[in-house]
């Protein structure tokens, strides 16, 4: 699981909190697209222009509600 973020991003901080609260702390990779041009290009090529983005099994999820739902499904 990967979380694509930026340095200053309140929604990214919220998703980090949600992942940690769900017990995934340390079990996901945080990728700052401001420091990783390859990751940024991957998102742009997928038509994604903002963060946070959660990647689970190769699926890129941009919507916060969808991210929370995906996290909940993993816990079941």
From TrEMBL:
PROSITE patterns, A to Z: GLUTAREDOXIN_2 (PS51354)
InterPro entries: Glutaredoxin (IPR002109), Thioredoxin-like_sf (IPR036249)
Domain Glutaredoxin, residue spans: 2-61
Entry-linked Pfam families: Glutaredoxin (PF00462)
Record-given protein name: Glutaredoxin
Organism listed in the record: Lysinibacillus telephonicus
Lineage: Bacteria, Bacillati, Bacillota, Bacilli, Bacillales
């Amino acid at each position: 699981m990967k979380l694509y973020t930026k340095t200053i991003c309140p929604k990214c901080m919220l998703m980090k909190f949600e992942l940690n609260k769900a017990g995934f702390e340390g079990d996901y990779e945080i990728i700052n697209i401001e420091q990783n041009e390859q990751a940024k290009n991957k998102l742009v090529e997928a038509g994604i222009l903002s963060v946070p983005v959660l990647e689970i099994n190769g699926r890129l999820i941009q919507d916060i509600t969808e991210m929370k739902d995906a996290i909940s499904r993993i816990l079941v």
